[in-house]
């Protein structure tokens, strides 16, 4: 179920959403956000970032570029029964957050993202004129 | 000299211990400090949360990017075993700056409460979270006794 996610400028509902997510998980308000593990690789055309954000659905993901900073935020939601109580928890926060500084040669307006099975993939292309070109060496 | 040093470090550990205790009180009974003998260090893949109600025990495995068909979930008495593989292919041509995500085989063994019914288990995979629900045995559930 891959879905494209629009890169939006500031999302005003992010704070509300985060609050709601926290309430749903109950009892974990005030926990620091989880820093999702990432893989980052670069090829000739751009940079690809993959982040593990289990429990986050498309509508609870907030991805934006703020100046030259890429901000990844999301809220996990588990299907809990009304009277469910925690017995054990490795994961004690439902909020993911991580930021990355972008550099000038990246085309921030053309970022594409997909979210599938809790893995966010972000593709940041390089500006066309700044992609590496093969320089031919002329024989003199 | 040594006694001063050791008492200073003891008090530091005391503080950490107290902090842990407070966290434990906030978040319930089972925690990492008094974790089960089969529990794995924090940060192991996949992370596990366990919740319960009088009727059911729910195990949540935070395992994004899996093909659920590759997951093997088995239960023997009250021991739940989950094994699987998450292979993240490496692109030879690319330059990697970070590779923090887990890749490879994993196995977690989780001791569930004694009163679960191993014949009534269901599992589903959504948004990268495996949810395994195990019903408790009827006889073990609390019953309201009416006075006539």
List descriptors.
heterodimer; A: mainly beta; Immunoglobulin-like; 5-stranded antiparallel beta sheet; 1 helix; 9 strands; B: Immunoglobulin-like; 4-stranded antiparallel beta sheet; 3-stranded antiparallel beta sheet; 39% strand
Q: What does this entry look like structurally?
A:
The complex is a heterodimer of chains A (140) and B (148). By secondary structure, chain A is mainly β. Chain A is 9% helix and 41% strand. Chain A contains one helix and nine strands; from the N terminus they run βαββββββββ. In chain A, strand 2 (38-42) and strand 3 (46-52) form a beta hairpin. Mean pLDDT of chain A is 80; it is low at 1-28. Chain B is an alpha+beta fold and 148 residues long. Chain B has two domains: 1-35; 37-140, Immunoglobulin-like (Sandwich). Chain B has one helix at 2-27; strands at 47-52, 56-62, 72-76, 79-86, 95-99, 104-111, 116-126, 129-136. Chain B is elongated, with a radius of gyration of 21 Å. Residues 1-12 and 27-33 of chain B have low confidence and may be disordered. Chain A binds chain B through residues 27-28, 37-43, 48, 50, 52-57, 76, 78-81, 83-92, 116-119, and chain B through 26-32, 35-36, 39, 42, 44, 46-54, 56-58, 60, 62-66, 88, 91, 93-102, 113, 125-129, 131.
């Amino acid at each position: 179920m891959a879905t494209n996610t629009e890169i939006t400028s500031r999302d005003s509902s992010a704070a509300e959403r985060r609050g709601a997510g926290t309430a749903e998980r109950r009892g974990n308000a005030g926990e620091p956000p989880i820093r999702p593990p990432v893989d980052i690789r670069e090829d000739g055309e751009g940079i690809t970032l993959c982040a593990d954000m289990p429990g986050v659905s498309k509508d609870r993901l907030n991805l934006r570029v703020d100046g030259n900073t890429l901000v990844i935020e999301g809220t996990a939601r588990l299907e809990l029964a009304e009277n469910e109580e925690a017995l054990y928890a490795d994961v004690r926060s439902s909020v993911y957050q991580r930021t990355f500084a972008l550099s000038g040669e990246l085309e921030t307006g053309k970022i594409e993202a997909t979210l599938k099975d809790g893995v966010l993939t972000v593709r940041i292309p390089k500006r066309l004129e700044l992609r590496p070109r093969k320089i031919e060496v002329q024989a003199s | 000299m040594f006694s001063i040093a050791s008492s200073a470090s003891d008090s530091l550990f005391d503080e950490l211990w107290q902090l842990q205790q407070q966290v434990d009180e906030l978040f319930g009974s089972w925690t990492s400090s008094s974790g089960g003998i089969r529990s794995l260090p924090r940060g192991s893949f996949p992370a596990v949360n366990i919740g319960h109600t009088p009727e059911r025990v729910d195990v949540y495995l935070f395992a994004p990017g899996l093909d659920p068909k590759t997951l093997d979930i088995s239960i023997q008495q009250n021991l739940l075993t989950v094994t699987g593989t998450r292979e993240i292919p490496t692109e030879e041509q690319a330059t990697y700056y970070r590779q923090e995500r887990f890749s490879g085989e994993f196995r977690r063994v989780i001791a569930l409460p004694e009163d679960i019914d191993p014949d009534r288990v269901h599992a589903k995979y959504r948004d990268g979270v495996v949810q395994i629900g195990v019903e408790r045995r009827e006889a073990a559930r609390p019953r309201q006794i009416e006075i006539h």
